[in-house]
């Protein structure tokens, strides 16, 4: 299934934003409210923070958040955003590249136009993962995007400057080599968190045929102007904004508890009317057009299990529950979502949304296998 023109136009716009006179600056968001706040401040696009999204849902960072909660959060973000949305999917979730491809397909169905995906560290050794792992996942994501006719922006994150086991003197060259391999696999941009030396940034930017993304979500980070002069085309604040928001909330609470005052809270706050004005009314779709589809080639990864036939149980009041099992990097996660009362022909909204996503994605992808580029 080819994406609609509006979706393709947003994806093309996101690509173009990396080639404007000024770098693309992302004040990364973590939920619908933060999306609207940064858009009102002038954001041209939305990038999510995986850490911020995980913390919001009560998990630590590092693919601890179950994939169904990631998809639900992204659905709310895409419904709220008026600018292009790129999602951080960490190492790609799931056991292999096919799982990553399935997740990317589901995200595109929600309206996403870009992803961040990282090489990260090997869970067993905590050293930098072999580049072939990310190369395969990028290639599968690219094939999935090509199948749907969407120019998905794939931003490949390289963790040479944040992982242990890489000698300082060799980091820049290792980064360059990995970057070229990821670009050859289908990456549109390169993201190197921890790279802060302006000379090294300039060297790497000149060596790459795609935009370089630099992380600036920490105290003392180089300014946008300095990073632009060094050749950076995209600047991400990552989880920095949410870290700051959490610290501000801690100050508000401590002041109320220990001093009985509210000055910190009252100094800068929106009125209820201003907050409500951030959100446009969006009618909830309620269709029953879902049809049965085959789970062809989805394996037992996160998206494949999301689409599995659910088992049902019943509350004492007659409300039906559905058990949905999902795979994360750390094993199985089972959750119960509200369904419908027995005897009703109308599925609950949560279950209905998942079924629509399953039908639209798998109906489009069918039995096609995503291979290497």
Order of helices and strands: HEHEHHEHEHEHEHEHEHHHHEEEH
**Tally of contiguous helical segments:** 14
Main-sheet strand order equals: 1-8-7-6-5-4-3-2
Secondary-structure-derived class:
alpha/beta
Plain-language structure description:
The protein has helices at 5-16, 32-40, 50-56, 67-80, 97-110, 131-147, 171-185, 198-207, 224-230, 240-259, 263-267, 272-277, 302-306, 349-365, and strands spanning 24-26, 46-47, 85-88, 114-118, 153-157, 189-191, 212-215, 234-236, 311-314, 319-328, 331-341. With 373 residues, the chain is α/β, with parallel strands linked by helices. Strands 1-8-7-6-5-4-3-2 form an 8-stranded parallel β-sheet. It has a 3-stranded antiparallel β-sheet with strand order 9-10-11. Strand 9 (311-314) and strand 10 (319-328) form a beta hairpin. Helix 2 packs parallel to helix 4 (67-80) and helix 6 packs parallel to helix 7 (171-185). The model is unreliable at 283-300, 307-348 and 358-373 (pLDDT under 50).
